[in-house]
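=== RUN LOG ===
request id: a7f3
mode: sequence -> structure
chains: 1
length: 135
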Amino acid sequence: MNQKIIALLAGLLFGAGLAASGMNDSNVVQGFLDVSGDWNPSLMFVMAAALMVTIPGFQYFLRRKPILAQGFKLTTLKNIDRQLVIGSIIFGIGWALVGYCPGPAIAALGYLNWEGLVFVLAMLAGAKLRQIQVA
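=== RESULT ===
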């Protein structure tokens, strides 16, 4: 099977999982992050369930050879540097203020709401700006 078809199917499965769990609903995400107000703990259970599948899944699949590649491409970076910390802070602030992060924002485009579209456009503009600064 073609790698692009597999990537499309994986993306659709990921988006369906986000929709089913409510993670692409910015109100649910902001409710989870509002620990001092009207806290919604539902995403904690979604994250716990995801980890229960992911951790053993990684242990199993990393011992095998990928079907469509020579090997897995895992990062070798181990340092926590200034750029990582600043990027993490910006990500966290954006996630808390808007209730979206990249994956759920793209999946939320399927709902055709303007907030998700504005977020994705701003995300793409920020990525392009960062690309220009690095080059």
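=== NOTES ===
Helices lie at 3-21, 26-33, 42-61, 82-98, 102-108, 114-134.
The chain has six helices and no strands.
=== END ===
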